[in-house]
């Protein structure tokens, strides 16, 4: 299955972004408001300049308690691993596992079109396994 199919099934496809010059305190409010674990850093809402997660905030605050007033650009990951809608679910899961990341922006050329989380992929895999189990159960119990 392709990532585009997973995106199409998401109830909310909008991607939450934050400007690189926004304060970390503002980032925390955005994460809480949208109940998300990571946010794409983008000045225009279309180009991926970075990604910042709850883990990034925690690690920076432990080292520097004044980081809440600093810009998000100072704690974001700049080398962002991305995928396209044509990438396979298995391929993206492998990349997430290898790089120990939980969120991957989906891009079309260089334009942000979505985001895939490990939770999205786990839900997809559980749905697949449930369907297969139901099909086998039906096959075994048909009259």
Explain what the structure shows:
Helices cover 44% and strands 16% of the residues. The protein is an alpha+beta fold and 143 residues long. The strands form 2 sheets. The protein has a 3-stranded mixed β-sheet with strand order 1-2-3. Strands 4-5 form a two-stranded antiparallel sheet. The chain is elongated and about 65 Å long.
The global form is elongated
Q: How far apart lie the N and C ends?
A: 32 Å
Return the structural class: alpha+beta
Helix content: 40-55%
Mean pLDDT: 93
Tally the helices.
5
Query: Can you identify the CATH superfamily?
Result: CBS-domain
Rg (CA only)? 18 Å
Can you list the strand order of the major beta sheet? 1-2-3
Briefly say what this structure is.
It contains 5 helices and 5 strands; from the N terminus they run αβαββααββα.
SSE topology:
Layout: H1 3-9, E1 17-18, H2 24-34, E2 38-41, E3 50-53, H3 54-63, H4 89-99, E4 103-108, E5 111-117, H5 118-141
Relevant terms:
44% helix, two-stranded antiparallel ribbon, CBS-domain, 5 strands, 3-stranded mixed β-sheet
């Amino acid at each position: 299955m392709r990532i585009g199919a997973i995106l199409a099934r998401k109830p909310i496809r909008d991607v939450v972004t934050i400007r690189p010059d926004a304060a970390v305190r503002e980032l925390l409010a955005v994460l809480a408001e949208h109940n998300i674990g990571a946010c794409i850093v983008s000045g225009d809402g279309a180009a991926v300049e970075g990604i910042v997660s709850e883990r990034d905030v925690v690690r920076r605050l432990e080292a520097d308690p004044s980081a809440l007033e600093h810009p998000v650009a100072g704690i974001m990951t700049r080398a962002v691993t991305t995928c396209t809608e044509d990438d396979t679910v298995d391929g993206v899961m492998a990349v997430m596992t290898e790089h120990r990341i939980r969120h991957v922006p989906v891009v079309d050329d260089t334009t942000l079109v979505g985001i895939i989380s490990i939770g999205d992929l786990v839900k997809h895999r559980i749905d697949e396994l449930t369907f297969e189990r139901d099909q086998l159960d039906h096959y075994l119990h048909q009259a």
